[in-house]
Design brief:
CATH topology: Ubiquitin-like (UB roll)
Shape: globular
Helix content: 10-25%
Oligomer: single chain
Radius of gyration: 16 Å
CATH architecture: Roll
Distance between the termini: 20 Å
Strand content: 35-45%
Number of helices: 1
Structural class: alpha+beta
């Protein structure tokens, strides 16, 4: 199982007309088998937190990144 960070973005335009991605939130998802499962889990949490019936009503895209799991040092207490 792997850990993922799923970031939701909204596309905005600044006062000079340049488009950019604005980070709405990042959802940390632990112990998922793959990226699809992590995305589905993050979408459910995102929709619930923002009281949405579809995540695309607020965000324009999401990005799924695998997170490094911290390695325990040998001899460290658990």
């Amino acid at each position: 199982m792997r850990n993922y960070a799923v970031t939701f973005y909204r596309h905005l335009t600044n006062s000079t007309g340049k488009r950019f991605r604005s980070n709405l939130t990042t959802v940390q998802v632990n112990d998922c088998a793959n990226r699809r499962e992590a995305c589905e889990s993050a979408v459910r949490r995102f929709e619930s937190a923002w009281a949405l019936n579809g995540w695309r009503n607020l965000a324009h895209e999401c990005e799924v990144r695998e997170r490094e799991t911290p390695q325990r040092k040998k001899g460290a207490a658990a």
